[in-house]
Write a structure and sequence with these properties.
Mean pLDDT: 95
CATH topology of the largest domain: Metallo-beta-lactamase, Chain A
Distance between the termini: 56 Å
CATH architecture of the largest domain: 4-Layer Sandwich
Structural class: alpha/beta
Number of domains: 2
């Protein structure tokens, strides 16, 4: 079987999801099918999964999640009801897993997921979320990357829910070192020039870091003041995400000994 992932849209457009989430269906020669990410349970998404399985005379045996944010796992409970014999697996995040009636089998860095006549390697890629993983297909040098990179947009590093800017940059660097040929993101189009996309994403994050440092040097002392300065004119629907990113940058600088916080006020070290 040639490795041809089928993109199935989750039909959940919004300010933070763009046109909506991508999920990917992989069908082995045996007819066993694996779904990467579960969407949010929209009936149109569930119907597209059912149609794809029927056309290929396939059965859903496995659902893998790149991480536990709701736009990636909320649909799992509906999939459990429709496909009770399927297994569900992810890198566990105890604080957030278990909200739904889904038993998640644990995945760890380096695990091999056997698809029958293909294998995916689990890469722990934290930063966007503590449990974030990517799935690496070595024969085609392709990776299913969840929210590591979003074409044409920046990824939110939600500091208040375990996001970590330093870990995020390390995860991007790790993926780049594999010299991938194709990236399958959870939002946006399939990425056919991965090194360029990864480089741009890393450069964008370091440019934001420079802006944060310059703002601190100029006397701005709170995360909100930094957001107002750096993201002046931003769509109000995205300001909460901008605040999370700025705080994640500040925490990275603090961890590196380059910034100090005192009761919510920040200065350069």
């Amino acid at each position: 079987m040639s490795f041809v992932p089928m993109l199935l849209e989750a039909h959940n457009p919004g300010p933070m999801t763009g046109r909506g989430n991508n999920t990917y269906l992989l069908v082995a020669e045996s007819g066993d099918a694996t779904l990467i990410d579960a969407g949010i349970g929209r009936e149109s998404h569930l119907a597209s999964i059912e149609d794809a399985l029927r056309v290929r005379s396939a059965r859903l045996v496995r659902v893998l999640a790149t991480h536990g944010h709701r736009d990636h796992v909320a649909g799992a409970s509906m999939l459990v009801q429709r496909y009770p014999h399927a297994t569900f697996a992810k890198f566990l995040w105890p604080e957030y897993d278990g909200r739904d009636d889904v038993h998640w089998q644990p995945l760890a860095d380096g695990d091999q997921v056997n698809l029958g006549n293909d294998t995916l390697c689990v890469l722990h890629t934290p930063g966007h979320a503590p449990d974030h993983i990517a799935f690496w297909h070595a024969p085609t040098r392709a990776a299913f990357i969840g929210d590591l990179v979003i074409p044409g947009a920046s990824v939110t590093i939600q500091w208040s829910r375990g996001g970590n800017m330093g870990e995020y940059l390390a995860s991007l660097t790790r993926l780049m070192a594999l010299q991938p040929s194709t990236l399958y993101p959870a939002h946006g189009s399939v990425i056919t020039d991965p090194i360029r996309a990864l480089t741009r994403t890393i450069e964008h994050r370091y440019e934001r870091e420079r802006q944060v440092i310059l703002a601190l040097a100029g006397g701005l002392a709170t995360a909100q003041a930094l957001v107002d300065s750096i993201y002046d004119g931003l769509d109000p629907a995205l300001l909460a995400a901008a605040h999370e990113n700025v705080r994640a940058h500040l925490e990275k600088l603090k961890a590196e000994g380059r910034a100090v916080e005192d009761h919510g006020r920040w200065t350069l070290a």
